[in-house]
Amino acid sequence: MRFLSDVTVNLVRHSAADSDVVWAARVSTAGEQSLEAVGQDPERSRGLINYLMRDRHGSPFEHNSMTFFIHAPIMVFREFHRHRVGWSFNEESGRYRELQPDFYVPGRERKLVQEGKPGRYQFVEGDDQQHKLVAEAMELSYRRSYAAYREMLEAGIAREVARAVLPVGLFSSMYATCNARSLMHFLSLRTKDERATVPSFPQREIEMVAEKMEAFWAGLMPLTHAAFNAAGRVSP
Fold first, then answer.
1. Known binding-site positions for FAD
2. Residues 6+ positions from 109 with CB-CB distance below 8 Å
């Protein structure tokens, strides 16, 4: 049994570059010759991408693809699946395979205490006793639930039935495929960033996933990423 405080995100496949945005946008004026202009004038490409982002011409940002492998708690995936437009998901199935005992326990840096009313609250640091309580309570619950799961499997109970005792702190794995436009919308809601025009208050665990995805994307499409930040992190 493993108790994990971090998530795993790997970029496993991609067809994504700033040039994808440029040729998709220029087809409106250059037709099929738009491909010939890609890469000839980097500064012109930067200006075009900034214009498209600023004036919210979104469709040119859809002509690319990124597939991520994500290993995170089930509670993260339940939030993730709220994002349906421009996304495809395939998650491991507890019906068809025995689920492995990886469970989430917040690290010491995770803020534990919620203060304020709904819609106007903030999270603050927990003290040593609170962190100790969280770790001990979670680990005890995880050990008991996984032991019950294994007991049912060994008694011949179907995996799809036995899994019902497992908590949302169990890690699952999935492939998630998106384009830059759908990823920008995800990031605008699932990260907290001082450059954002519209503030967001994500749960820390899904923000951990979002931060890792953004780092990969920024490396693939630096001009688009810069334009996204300059436009207040609002998806076009």
1. 59, 82-84, 91, 179-181, 185
2. none
